[in-house]
Structures are given as structure tokens and as C-alpha cells.
Amino acid sequence: MTLHKTFPTTGRITEHFTLAEFACHGGAKCCGGAAPIKFELVEMLEELRARVGAPLKINSGFRCIKHNKAAGGSKSSLHMLGMAADVATPTGWTPFRFAAEARAIGFGKVIKYDWGIHVDIRTW
């Protein structure tokens, strides 16, 4: 997989996010921390951060096939394409309100959970 837009392969990729935040967390038993994340996703998360007015914690960004399977992800999960992220609800926000802000930005799909939201940049 390749990055959709070019940005550094390590360190800070936008004003508030680092590539490590989006890296696969499957450990040594999978890809070892790859992070081919789509820049459009990160740009939209920057906009969400600005609307929220607080840092966002990325629980899951890119997942390799092995990690996605271990995490119980769908066989067609957009995490495996670097097009999705799971984001914890910021302090002072409800998952409902947080999801509403994400929808207002125009993410392709927003799924609300008790712990936060899943967002992706699908166009279908």
C-alpha cells in the first residue's frame, strides 16, 4: 500500500498528529507497526479536532490483515486500507455529540460506540 499524498514516513504528519498514532498495534506477530494511512483521513481528523477544541486520541488507525482479524474487524475493514480510525470521545463530550460533529464534517461513515467513534472516508 502507498500513501495517497506524500508526507514523512515518521514523526509529525500534520499539526496535531504523528504517524505513530495511526500505526498498526498488532505487535511483533504482524506487520511490526506499518502505517499506510490516507492523508484525507488525517486532514478530516484535524478539522474534527479543531471543532472539538481538544486533542483526539486515536485508538486504532491502520490495521494489517493479521491485526484486523485478531481485533475482530470485518474482512473488508477500511482500517486495512488506511481509510478509517477509531477515536476516543474527548473529555466533556458525549459519544452522541462527538459523532454528530464528525458527521457534520462529512466523514463517509460514522459509527458511535460507548467509548468513542469509528470514522472513515469511504465514498460509497
Name the features:
single chain, 124 residues, alpha+beta, Muramoyl-pentapeptide Carboxypeptidase, domain 2, four-stranded antiparallel β-sheet, 4 strands, 25% helix
Largest sheet: 4 strands, antiparallel
Using the CA coordinates, give the radius of gyration: 14 Å
Mean pLDDT: 90
Overall tally of structural domains:
1
Please name the CATH topology.
Answer: Muramoyl-pentapeptide Carboxypeptidase, domain 2
Low-confidence stretches: none
Q: Specify the overall morphology.
A: globular
Order of helices and strands: HEHEHEE
User: Can you identify the CATH class?
Assistant: Alpha Beta
What is the CATH architecture descriptor? 2-Layer Sandwich
Structural class: alpha+beta
| Helix share bin | 25-40%
Strand order of the largest sheet: 1-2-4-3
What is the percentage of strand-forming residues? Answer: 5-15%
Structure summary, number of beta strands? 4
How far is the N terminus from the C terminus?
20 Å
Number of helices: 3
